[in-house]
Amino acid sequence: MLQRTEGIVLKTSPFGEADLIVTYLTSDHGIIRTFAKSPRKIKSRFGSSLEPLTCARISFWGREDSALPRLTQSDIIHSFHSIRSTLNCFLRVSEVIELTLNFLPEREASKKVYALLMNTMKVMESECNTGLLLVFYKLRLLEAVGFLPRFSGCGRCGKKGDCFYVSHGTVLCGSCSKGHQPSIRLSPGVVNLYASLLGWSIAKLDRIKPPEAFVSELSAVIDEHVKYITERSLKTKSFRAS
Q1: What is the pLDDT of residues 148-181, one digit of tens each?
Q2: 220-225-226 Cα angle (round to 5)
């Protein structure tokens, strides 16, 4: 069965001497892995379309439930070459990709996540040195997959609270938090920034000018939340910090 869709290359893995396993985030099928025959040869018909981050129109052949369909065609829509050519920018996107791979199951279609990644990379082409965009992506991805942390009020009774409990994924008020593990106290500025990032579109993100301290604080809380859920730290984040 031949299928066609639009996809973004998340990663590639060598297979044998000249073949590749190419992992895509697609608009119609979510994350899929495909087998590409001989793309590592000099005269490959795939050219540069299998480079990480490349957005392409792809065709693949295999049974509908095939774990590794064969990639038959890949035509570049947008290469995102400028992101790959800048180390700091590429590492930021790599963190985004790792997070996406950790939270989005294979073959679970999500046009919302696909559009989020595409729009994020388009913004990164012109402005990559902002931690705000990375925090925005993390929050919106967690929202899309159902793991968004709750800051707006106590997750049990709804009362106001300013202490985030990682093991619960939510703020708890003084009464509901009794007997639980130590929490992370949230400043009012971080709670407001959290609400703004969930309420504004990526096109209007440049209108938000929060202090860097708020961005760093919110990022640290989200990373702790992600670490608790996945039971591991992001490899790319550790590499970028080293």
Answers
A1: 999 999 999 999 999 999 999 999 999 999 988 8
A2: 95
* Assigned token pair, 159: 């009362």
Give the DSSP H or E segment for 5: strand 2-15
Task: Give me the DSSP letters along 51-69.
Answer: STT-EEEEEEES-TT-SSP
Q: 178 CB contacts (<8 Å, ≥6 apart)?
A: none
Q: Which pair of tokens denotes residue 2?
A: 């031949």
Amino acid 75: pLDDT = 96
Length of the chain in terms of residues written:
242
User: Do 50 and 20 meet the contact criterion of CB atoms below 8 Å apart?
Assistant: yes
C-alpha 33/C-alpha 42 separation (Å) is 23
Domains in the chain (CATH in brackets) are 2-79 (2.40.50.140), 86-151+186-241 (1.20.1440)
The three-point CA angle 78-142-192 to 5° equals 105
Confidence of residue 34 (pLDDT cuts 50, 70, 90): very high
What are the residues whose beta carbons fall under 8 Å from the beta carbon of 203, sequence distance 6 or more? 119
**22 is written with which tokens?**
């190419």
Whole-angstrom distance, CA of residue 58 vs CA of residue 118: 16
Q: How confident is the model at residue 241 (pLDDT cuts 50, 70, 90)?
A: low
Q: How is the beta sheet containing 170-172 ordered, strand by strand?
A: 170-172, 163-165, 184-185
What gap in Å lies between CA 22 and CA 50, rounded to an integer? 7
Euclidean distance between CA atoms 196 and 136, whole angstroms: 10
What type of residue sits at position 80?
F
